[in-house]
Amino acid sequence: MISISERGMDEAVTSLRQVGPDAHRRLADAVRDEADALAAEAVGALPPGPLAASIRVTVDDAGDTVTATIGSDDPAARFLEAGTRPHVIEARSARALRFFAHGREVFAKRVDHPGTRPHPFLTGAFADRAAAIAARLAAAVAA
Questions:
Q1: 3-state class of 74 per DSSP?
Q2: pLDDT by residue for the chain (143 residues), tens digit each?
Q3: How many domains does the chain contain in total?
Q4: Whole domain around residue 99: which residue ranges?
Q5: Are residues 94 and 61 part of one domain?
Q6: Which listed residue, of 20, 63, 71, 73, carries a Cα 20 to 30 Å from 96's Cα?
Q7: How far is the first Cα of the chain from the last one, in angstroms, to the nearest whole number?
Q8: Using CA atoms, how far apart are residues 31 and 9, in angstroms rounded to an integer?
């Protein structure tokens, strides 16, 4: 599971208690909206398919704390997000690996994979939206 969360909100919680009872609800709504928008941006950075469909948002509104988690339980997510180093792939349960390269079917017992570049669909979306998220949460508390 890849997830991104924002911590260190103790000061904001203290401020919320001083601003009024609606502040927590406004903040929770803003966190939910921003988490959904962030997930939508991450999904938009992916090709349609199982990985994009696996992106989930969970919002936990427990007491004074609101936490949003955006992530995927697809094992490919971490490899796509962070990339991979060059590595060897060997046939284990079959006599050979089978794949297509340059339009041709290929069989091999072992492949020296060159690795993959990172495609930070989730952390990239967060970096792109961080200022907007902070502004929205601050506005929700101040309203």
A1: coil
A2: 544 555 555 565 565 556 566 888 888 899 999 999 999 999 999 999 999 999 999 999 887 788 999 999 999 999 999 999 999 999 999 999 999 999 999 999 999 999 999 999 999 999 999 999 988 988 888 87
A3: 2
A4: 84-116
A5: no
A6: 73
A7: 35
A8: 12
